[in-house]
Specification:
8 strands, five-stranded antiparallel sheet, 2 domains, alpha+beta
Length: 286
């Protein structure tokens, strides 16, 4: 039995470790915490290294604050129990404990029990993001330049069927984009869920994605002009996972710079992972 007169920092640490919970969530995400635009861009591009680098300082500070609070509460509880039991003042021991090797030992024990999936909560709370993805067959080198353009030409370029609705929608976009007086490049416009895009990011087998029924933008993002379809085109497009970009991250003026007040929820489409072996996964992004 430990002598009440000779309790040490080691005894205090042991008692605190005995009282630890089995698990802790050291990084606490409040209800209004979200990723920044830059961090969302990292998720969409699939740049995990940049994402974690941008979150590292916040994670460390939040985790450290949690550990300090847990240790302070545990120490106070153990000291209070000893003083009530033994009628001995342990304030000197409590003061000497802070910053000691035994304090560090308790810290390591707490950190080993950290099981919080805070990153998932953070991306979930971020919500939806607007994507603007270049269409390589109507890129800068293959743009429509100061010429009359037929809807069928556009659909042939993007590999979509000449359905009545597709022809009608592309015709409407062309009428408002005025290709005979301008340069038109093509972009897929998609509203997608950030959490689902993060799931694509951490799936190491995802090499390509398949977008079903996207919207199309034809215009010149260098000049800040163009038009977006009011309805999605019917069809699917496959592209490398690494080609995904947010509207803000893609080159040129963003759609919101051009239009203003554009929301991802107005352009929802499904993005699914295409895993190695060409099998379609069950990970839709919207």
């Amino acid at each position: 039995m430990i002598s009440t007169e000779t309790r040490t920092a080691t005894d205090l640490a042991n008692a605190m470790i005995d009282d630890l919970d089995k698990t802790y969530e050291l990084v606490y995400v409040t209800y209004d915490d979200t990723l920044t635009d830059e961090q969302v861009g990292n998720v969409v591009r699939g740049d995990m290294e940049a994402l974690w680098e941008s979150l590292a300082e916040w994670e460390d500070e939040t985790s450290w604050d949690s550990v300090e609070q847990i240790i302070a509460e545990l120490k106070a509880s153990v000291i209070r129990g000893w003083e009530n039991e033994n009628d001995v003042d342990y304030s000197n021991l409590a003061d000497a404990f802070d910053g000691s090797d035994e304090w560090e030992r308790v810290r390591y024990e707490i950190e080993e029990r950290n099981t919080g999936d805070w990153i998932k909560r953070l991306v979930r709370q971020t919500g939806q993001v607007l994507l603007r993805i270049p269409i390589d067959t109507i890129d800068e080198d293959n743009a429509f330049c100061f010429q009359e353009v037929e809807p069928a030409e556009v659909l042939d370029r993007i590999g979509f069927a000449h359905t009545k609705d597709n022809l009608s929608e592309v015709s409407y976009v062309l009428a408002n984009a005025s290709p005979e007086f301008s340069v038109l490049m093509g972009y897929w416009i998609v509203g997608a869920d950030v959490e689902a895009l993060y799931d694509l990011l951490i799936d190491g087998d995802t090499q390509q994605v398949e977008i079903t029924d996207p919207y199309i933008y034809l215009g010149n993002p260098f000049a800040g002009s163009g038009f977006i379809s009011e309805k999605p085109l019917t069809g699917t497009v496959r592209l490398p996972r690494a080609d995904l970009r947010t509207d803000k991250d893609a080159f040129g003026y963003s759609i919101n710079d051009i239009y203003g007040g554009v929301h991802a929820s107005s352009f929802e489409a499904t993005i699914a992972a295409i895993t190695l072996g060409s099998g379609r996964s069950d990970s839709p992004a919207a």
